[in-house]
Design goal:
2 copies of one chain form a homodimer. Chain A is mainly alpha-helical. Helix content of chain A is 65%, strand content 6%. Chain A is elongated and about 115 Å long.
């Protein structure tokens, strides 16, 4: 087996597609890693904003978390309906594009894909990974995804469930302790002392904390974009997967909010000495810093660094849906050897890699952008569903419509709050980025439409005016390569010009030999002899005079096709290629770019090692 | 004027060559920079080895320098004769290869080219330049040389003569002071105190000091390699240039040796705190640290960093001489737009750049290697001249032969001393490098000889068995592009196979339309209709099945030529190219590399913006 086979596994036939489909057990790690891992940073983001309130801030985490959970519930019910309505996948893009028209559909897609790219870049902010490790993980995730959906589910199974198990176990122990202690448990390891308040409570501060806490909701849309990856009945399994993800996420968010409050844990300022993550303080307070603490922290680190995988499960499918409508390069719709939309995986890897490289220091600024994008996508998706139900009508449609309308309203308001709260922190980029990407997609679509219109052909083959082309054969000297090319030219046409560029040598000798070597045998065979044209080249250029001659010939024979025969020595070993000039390659390229439809290039290869 | 024109100047016609030729005024900076600048490091290198002798060491600089100067004189007379004997240039390579045979000729050439590369890398050791500045200077020197010989002479004129003027002026003032003071002048600024001796004098130490001092001789062969650059009478002007260079160099070496001894200046250990170059101490001792000191030091820095220019004047001419004999890629013989051997300039730039990058920290180790290479080249050149005179005979030939024999003996002994003295310091690399490079050159030659034999053709064009090819046309769907290609195929042959790869779509529709769109009109025109072959592709590969089909067809029709028509959409804007798959380019490349002589590729371009 070759290297590619070893890395990616054997090719999968198109008909093996069904076997690659997944159920909820693999669906949760594949599509849920993003959403679930946000339990590790969502509450923390909210608590960080509450630091200025001191002790009082801790109390506010409960209402903020409840708001987030309620919103999550609304979004959950909305996406459940989306899955049911669009069992082929494509999620918010499909919904928005079919119902709100092209522009809104692109809008949602851009929000999601910008978010997907950003999530990857957000990983180093969540923990002190170096750039190299980030790129390494990126490469790993890319490779695993190229091996196929089913396999990536198997790889991420253990860390995902370990993470969920640890957090839920910690919450359970903490909950028992809290109830036994009557609401005021004694921490095993006391959290750091909370500094005094420096600000009074304000609605604006609470709103901003809520906006930050909402980052815990990102990734919820992934399942609805990837419905196509599930086993039959796809809608049922996708819905089940979404329900499990949301249920686990709600349990974690609620538990964390309750227990941080009960144990009196406040966030520590990030990036300053003594910083400790909220989950670290909480788990240490509940169970001490034993093996359980170690396993939990390890699982958090692994899951956070692998949460990019959801983007890899999500983006290629979404990009394919958009590309099928002509708004992104067609190659995104091609399935690779493992039935994955390979080009989408590569595109995301390059995008994420570029973000990691360029925004390395300032990934924090991209998180707000991501949140805005995600909530815009949520809103458009729900709004699209409202129109969908309005069109469908019938039993239950009215109720469904109201659920989606509520969802659209709630997520729309949240999007506005997040945009406002985080505008100066980077959310303004969305305002520039989204129209830019939409414009680009429109241009892609226009290009494809133009090309399709231009090459469309409904008339049958016409054989009228089938005339042999004028043949041009550039040659350096008389050799077996030249002779072979000239024989080919004689098959093609009787109008042959052999072009020799004279940079100050051997052309006289060639001219004399031409008569004997070419003209005489041609006349003897009753054929028109090929004409030898010598082009002087005072500046020693070789390719340019040939190109100029061909273009001039094309102009002076507006009714003829021109065929340029390019004899080429082919070396099968790359290093011997260094020993030959590559004029034929340069000539071919220039003819392709400077030529036009009436000029065809014919490559006559001569293999040296035969 | 375009960017290239702005950077490199207008193209020069081949017949303008005479105007580009130079005289001694430009010849000295172009071919002498390497030799002259070595006055700045040769004596220093010798003095550094004498440090362990303390005060006593200073006295030994005079005999060591005298030995170097005597050797220089011998080499000078030898090269004078070389110029006379070989007025076409090529120097030690030409001499050695014509007289001592191929192997020895390569030996000399490799020594020179290895040295040339090393000199460039030696610059950062001579002064604390950073890698970036080195690469910048390299790029500058490369650019200046691409602009032509005459112009590079003009650019290096001022720094070269300023350097020579400053050093000679300092020596003159110092000499007057010394004579006035009766041999013991009072330094304006006293040199650092000389530490006590740590070693006794030994012949081995003196020999090593001599070997180090010999680095002052490198670069002397440059004029003889570049005779072709001089005005008519070339030999006369080249000889005059060589004489001037050697005279100036001898004056500088002698003056420096005498005055360092008179002023009591010893070298300071390089790389340690308090290090100061010998020339810096000497000029400060003679004239103080005023404006003259500043100008002199500036000129030394500029000339050392530009001394690589000699390599650029020398190497491309030498490489051309070797390439003309088939031992290096033929492209080295091509003159670029400014009549320079452009490829040689590029090759040297890449070589020097790579040396700068990889040996940055250890360039010191490459200097011994350079010295060995240079002296091997000297020796072989002289030995070659001995054989030359022996063959020529006639008046004066006997005298000339003895001069060269003395030169060969002296430089041969020096080469042995340098190799022995510097063996562990890096000269051992020469022992590996030179046979390696010689082997490579032999292989290049063998390759060229093989190719020439293979493509050589002395028989005239034969028009027997001129049969139309079997045509294969891969197509995706029926379009104007396909229709145009099919028309071309019908001109070419009546045996046409249209290949469609079915990865699970539209092939049924195509099959039905084929009858109506292609077969019917072909039959109506009385032509054999092209056959549609559908290749199933369960693994969704597109290019591979086409390739396999073509190769199989080639095998099953051993008597026919195969022509593969590749229709290709050409985008004139690079970015729209991203929107199309590049299967046709991949197919063309694979056909070229996996195909054979009976398979020709015909490219039918379709331009989109017309």
């Amino acid at each position: 087996m070759d290297l590619v086979g070893l890395l990616l596994g054997r090719p999968l036939a198109t008909e093996e597609e069904k076997a690659e489909r997944i159920g909820p057990a693999k669906g949760i790690p594949i599509f849920g890693l993003d959403a679930l891992s946000s339990a590790a940073y969502g509450p923390e983001a909210a608590l960080t904003l509450l630091i200025p309130l001191g002790m009082a801030g801790i109390a506010y985490i409960v209402p903020v978390s409840i708001s987030v959970i309620v919103l999550l519930g609304i979004v959950y019910f909305s996406y459940r309906q989306t899955i049911e309505a669009y069992p082929m996948g494509g999620g918010s893009y499909t919904v928005a594009s079919e119902n709100l028209g092209m522009w809104a559909g692109l809008f949602a897609a851009v929000g999601i894909s910008a978010g997907v790219g950003t999530l990857v870049s957000a990983v180093p902010a969540a923990q002190p990974h170096t750039l190299e490790i980030c790129l390494g993980i990126l490469a790993l995730v890319c490779l695993v995804n190229l091996r196929g959906v089913s396999e990536s589910g198997a790889v991420f199974l253990v860390p995902a469930y370990l993470f969920v198990g640890c957090i839920l176990a910690a919450i359970l122990i903490g909950a028992v302790n809290t109830m036994v202690a009557g609401g005021h448990p004694v921490p095993v390891i006391a959290p750091p002392r909370i500094p005094p308040a420096t600000e009074a409570v304000s609605l604006w501060l609470i709103l901003r904390a809520f906006a930050s806490g909402c980052t815990a909701m990102t990734g919820v849309e992934a399942v609805s974009n990837g419905v196509g990856a599930f086993r039959e009945p796809t809608a049922k399994y996708a819905r089940l997967t979404l329900t499990c993800i949301i249920a686990i996420l709600v349990a974690m968010l609620a538990g964390i909010a309750w227990l941080t409050n009960a144990y009196g844990i406040a966030a520590t300022p990030p990036g300053e000495p003594g910083y400790q993550s909220v989950l670290s303080m909480l788990i240490a307070a509940i169970g001490g810093k034993g093996w359980f603490y170690g396993v939990s922290m390890g699982a958090i680190v692994v899951v956070l660094s692998l949460s990019a995988n959801t983007a890899f499960a999500d983006f290629p499918r979404l990009a394919r849906a958009i590309a099928q409508n002509g708004f992104l390069p067609h190659s995104l719709t091609t399935r690779g050897r493992r039935l994955v939309y390979t080009q989408g995986v590569y595109m995301l890897t390059i995008l994420a890699g570029a973000l990691l490289l360029f925004f390395d220091g300032i990934t924090d600024r991209l998180i707000p952008l991501y949140a805005v994008g995600a909530f815009l996508a949520f809103t458009l998706s729900q709004a699209g569903m409202v129109l969908h139900w309005k069109r469908v009508r019938g039993r239950g449609a009215r109720r469904s419509m109201w659920i989606n309308a509520l969802g659209a309203l709630a997520t729309g308001l949240t999007a506005a709050v997040v945009l406002l709260a985080k505008f100066t922190e980077g959310a303004w980029i969305t305002v520039l980025l989204i129209p830019g990407l939409m414009l680009m997609m429109r241009m892609v679509k226009r290009h494809y439409v133009g090309v399709a219109r231009e090459i469309a052909c409904h008339t049958p083959l016409s054989l009228a005016n089938l005339q042999p082309p004028l043949v041009v054969l550039p040659l350096d000297s008389w050799s077996r390569v030249t002779r072979k090319a000239l024989r080919f030219a004689m098959v093609l046409s009787s109008d042959i010009v052999a072009l020799h560029v004279d940079a100050g040598e051997q052309s006289d000798a060639l001219r004399q030999r031409w008569h004997e070597l070419v003209e005489t045998p041609a006349l003897q065979a009753g054929r028109k002899p090929p004409e030898l044209v010598v082009l002087p080249s005072p500046y020693r250029f070789v390719v340019q005079p040939i190109l100029a001659y061909v273009l001039e010939m094309e102009r002076s024979h507006p009714d003829r096709q021109i065929s340029v025969l390019v004899p080429e020595l082919v070396e099968r070993r790359w290093y011997t290629n260094l020993l030959h000039n590559h004029r034929s390659a340069v000539l071919k390229t220039l003819l392709l770019f400077k030529g036009n439809r009436r000029i065809a290039v014919i490559n006559i290869p001569w293999y040296l090692d035969e």
